[in-house]
Design goal:
The chain is α/β, with parallel strands linked by helices. 52% of the residues lie in helices and 13% in strands. It has 20 helices and eleven strands. α12 crosses α17 and α15 packs antiparallel against α16. The protein starts with 5 loop residues before the first strand and ends in a 7-residue tail after the last helix. The chain binds ligand C2E, succinic acid (SIN) (2 copies) and fe (iii) ion (FE) (2 copies). The site of one succinic acid (SIN) has 7 residues, from α11 and α16. The site of one fe (iii) ion has 5 residues, from α17.
Length: 510
């Protein structure tokens, strides 16, 4: 057999080996496969007949990168191509630097593979560096956009788009399984009426439901010869379609059986129908869609995990803020109002919605350092001595020191706010004595919000001020204590500010 026709496929996943073999055999190559690097290396040593090597990266026994390194010693003319998922894309890039000629992204599409092979063959004849560079740049562009998907909605849209593209279909949908596992909701669709979005269907009476319950993909060549399926059909009027489950990775807890029915194993179902060329779906389409579904399930879980972590962070921030207020016998409404005032001011100052939202979430922690102030001073029912006030002043730096170690966006913003909310625009504040725009915009904003609110409520050491008196102080301190621009913004926003004050009133005294 001519040397040029032999390709070796190495992957620990049997479905990948089969799929690649199918594709490459159809293209007229002779395909050999191995489940790991060690076995592959044996085969390469045994017969130096392979011209292209497709290898997975992460495999037991010997990983793809080591395999490439070793294989090139034995067979320098062998052209290695790495097969990678999004998860290991960085490693794949490293592999390209280490001598892999190229990489292909899982889930595969036929033309990508064909292209990779024909390029590899050309490479082994011509060594065309420029063409290779060009192609890799193109791949980089695609993958970058995938890695940046942070929202569930965008991810689902992307997955459906990719699925339709890979199998050349024109209609499809993604249905999300509800938390209790009883219903499915149409999350995104292509080629279906928009008004069906968010429609819920019962697991018992739909094709997607069957797929979710059985944890089985379904390939139907002709719905007319499949009466059972026909009866379950929901919106799928085409003759041929594929439905695949997006399956959660099994966790140890599932294997104990205790939780088995509590958390649904299938988190979503991907449906596609209507081939562009009017043909019916094949087993290969099913395999491709199963791989897409695998990756999509992992990505979906990641996005949700990230969201849960952020929710938890937000909750923690508020809880900490409330603890502070309790310690100093203030109400939790103070931090809520300061948070809302700060967001209004941030938006009016021209900050982005994202920054304003970070500020809203971080500002309740401005006084977190007060937890380190002795009770006798913090809750002293009267004027502080200068010495006592010096001790109170340490709360800004203490808050900063508590929060600065966190890497999260919200907590880092909170650290800056804790440190700088008592700086004064003219430079006479504490702890650093910063001046003007050297004070972080978050600090300048929270300063205005905090003083406005502190003056309006009763504290152990003071009565609540009348609104007019408060506003007079802001006019007087414009450009002194406060950033003049923010004071202007504050007066411009006074209606919104007062509305917030009414929405979160202090509880009546007992
Ligand atoms: P806080 O009660 O949250 O007050 C925040 C800021 O609002 C104060 O920062 C101050 O700029 C402004 N503010 C509050 N009440 C008044 C007031 O009656 N008159 C004026 N002109 N401004 C007021 P400041 O001064 O740096 O104080 C920081 C923290 O020190 C206060 O936070 C409070 O916890 C404590 N503190 C300040 N003065 C006294 C006091 O006389 N007695 C007690 N027990 N604590 C005090
Ligand atoms: C790999 O097994 O090397 C890649 C994992 C994946 O498919 O994301
Ligand atoms: C976030 O910034 O979105 C999360 C906050 C954190 O991780 O501390
Ligand atoms: Fe403070
Ligand atoms: Fe405060």
């Amino acid at each position: 057999m001519p040397k040029e026709d032999c390709i070796l496929v190495v992957d620990d996943e049997v479905v990948i080996r089969e799929l690649m073999s199918d594709i490459l055999t159809d293209e007229g190559f002779t395909v050999f496969s191995a489940p790991n690097g060690r076995k592959a290396l044996e085969m390469i040593r045994e017969t130096n007949k392979f011209v292209v090597l497709f290898t997975d990266i992460m495999m037991p026994e010997m990983d793809g990168i080591e395999l490439i390194r070793e294989a090139r010693k034995v067979a320098p003319s062998l052209v290695p191509i790495v097969m990678t998922g999004y998860a290991t894309l960085e490693t794949a890039r490293a592999a390209v630097k280490e001598g892999a000629y190229d990489y292909v992204l899982k889930p595969f599409n036929l033309s990508e593979i064909k292209m990779a092979v024909s390029n590899a063959l050309e490479r082994s004849r011509l060594s065309n560096e420029n063409a290779r560079l060009l192609e890799i740049t193109e791949l980089f562009n695609i993958s970058e956009s995938i890695a940046s998907i942070r929202s569930e909605e965008k991810l689902l849209e992307f997955v459906l788009g990719a699925a339709l593209e890979k199998v050349q279909a024109t209609r499809g949908s993604l249905m999300l399984v509800s938390a209790d596992g009883r219903t499915l909701e149409l999350a995104t669709c292509t080629g279906l009426p928009e008004n069906l979005l968010r429609t819920k269907v019962d697991l018992e009476s739909s094709i997607s439901g069957w797929v979710a319950k059985q944890v089985q993909p379904l390939l139907v060549q002709d719905i007319r010869t499949n009466p059972t399926v026909d009866k379950m059909s929901w919106q799928l009027t085409e003759n041929s379609f594929v439905s695949v489950p997006l399956e959660r990775k099994a966790s140890p807890i599932d294997e104990t059986n205790i939780m088995e029915s509590a958390i649904p194993r299938v988190i979503a179902v991907l449906n596609v129908t209507e081939k562009r060329d009017g043909t019916t779906f094949t087993e290969r389409d099913l395999k491709i869609l199963s791989i897409v579904a695998n990756h999509a399930a992992a990505a979906l879980e990641n996005v949700r995990l990230l969201r849960d972590v952020e929710d938890a962070q937000r909750e923690m921030v508020f809880t900490l803020g409330e603890i502070v207020e309790t310690r100093s016998r203030e109400t939790g409404y103070h931090v809520k109002r300061v948070a809302e005032y700060s967001k209004v001011l941030a938006l009016k100052c021209g900050l982005s919605l994202a920054d304003a939202e970070v500020l809203r979430m971080a500002s309740p922690l401005h006084d977190v350092g007060k937890v380190g102030i002795p009770d006798a001073i913090l809750n002293k029912p009267g004027k502080l001595t200068p010495e006592e006030f010096e001790i109170i002043k340490t709360h800004s730096q203490m808050g900063y020191d508590m929060l600065k170690v966190s890497k999260g966006r919200i907590l880092q913003a909170a650290a800056i706010i804790a440190q700088q909310h008592h700086e004064k625009f003219e430079g006479s504040g504490y702890p650093l004595g910063l001046k003007g725009k050297d004070i972080h915009i978050f600090g300048r904003i929270v300063c205005v919000a905090d003083v406005f609110d502190a003056l309006g409520v009763k504290r152990v050491y003071k009565e609540a001020w009348e609104l007019d008196r408060i506003l007079d102080l802001f006019k007087q301190e414009r450009g002194k204590h406060f950033d003049p621009e923010i004071v202007d913004v504050f007066f411009d926003s006074i209606e919104d500010i007062l509305q917030i004050r009414t929405a979160f009133p202090e509880p009546l005294e007992d």
